[in-house]
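REQUEST FORM: STRUCTURE PREDICTION
Request ID: SP-0412
Submitted by: Lab K.M.
Chain count: 1
Length (residues): 460
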Amino acid sequence: MSSMALKIFPLLFIFLLPVALYGQQTDDDPFKRDPIFTRPLDDFFGVGNEEGEEVETEVESAEKALKRLNVTGIDLGGNLEAGPYYSNALYSQYPNLPMIHFNRVNGLFLGVKKERMQWHRYGNLFNIPQIQPHGFIGYGTASKEWEYAVGLEKLIGERKRLMIGGEFHRATSTEDHYRVGLTETSITSFLASYDFLDYHQMEGYGLYAVYRTQRWIEAAFSFNRDTFSSLSQSTSYSLFGRGSVYRPNPPIDQFSDEIDLDRYGISLSFNPRNVLLNDRFTVSTTIGAELADNSGSDEEYRYNKYWTTLKLFYNFEPGSVLRWRLNAGGITGNAPDFKDFYLGGIGTLRGSPYKFFQGNQMVSSNLEVQFGRPSSRAGEWIRDYNLHILLFLDSGWTRQIPDMVNGSNPFSGFSEFSFAGLQHDAGAGIGTGAFRVELAWPLKEFDRQPAFWIRFNPTF
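STATUS: Completed
RESULT:
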């Protein structure tokens, strides 16, 4: 661990240096999350706060949550649970499924949960200020397994800019949370056997530290030691399905069903909550690394995984919005199959077969244009209660680069990249902020039969 620490801390210093130098203040806090399901009981009865100000009633809070749901979909705004979509970029180094979900390995999972990595609603534990426990416990009705996480967090400093925490856990998780919403896929699984995620079990512990400025920057470091295990399908039930049409849940690797990994995670995000930079434009970006090339990991599976995401939103005319997401990543060393990059299907190349492309080097782009009715609300570009038209172009490239298995440069494989090698899928859709239908056609590699999607979230 000492040799790896010598490699990690210079990287951590580089990541945290701009955070320490940048600290713009503002009255609004984009990191605040206050959905209806985590409000104190006093708020529901309309009790005023200590300064005598009135707070929202339950009805007002529900209306506010409903409006936000129509803007952000079921998952992406953190209205039901923060999850990986409204938390730090390293959230999914830990178990990330909702406290109530349905999938082909757990069946119906029922649990209670207190979220990790949240910046507000801290109290006193044992008279220690700004500290709180977090975690969950629940039971899978098909897997017949109890799952849990037990953790503790502490905010440091008068301005509450630094969070430290840790957690023990044994639970089901997924690497596919970026493809489709976790609650969204529970709905499609339960109704029609469409479970778009692949799952594994993780058992172990982790420690983390997260630092933020008032508005723009969030950086994090995490150490995780886990045993990852393959899971098999435990149920074929769906409400309207006839027999099992679920995909088999794949093993974590073709050569092993249980792998021990020690991972150091680093992330740095600019504008992670997509706060508007001006009235018509905003951009956000995140870079991250998962470093498992160390003596604590199984000898056959030592790797370093690097990735970055850029999101851009531009209101180029009233009621019309350009949305663009660019992803890139590289893996050095020998990563298990479930850590590879996959493109194809929902959330990536929407006209191509699901996870058809696999590799240790990846570039993907999702470009969307929405045409809808302009909104008169500040900061809302399209009236999401009304239908809007959607046009999109998905592009992607991924390859398995042999030289990267024995190398240490995550950019070396990009010498094989070419724009002519990109797979392109184009499509159109119609919907609101919380519901949409899409048709996507592959422009290369496959026949021109369209794929049909029903979504309860925006793609990003």
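NOTES: The longest strand covers residues 303-317.
Reviewed by: T.R.
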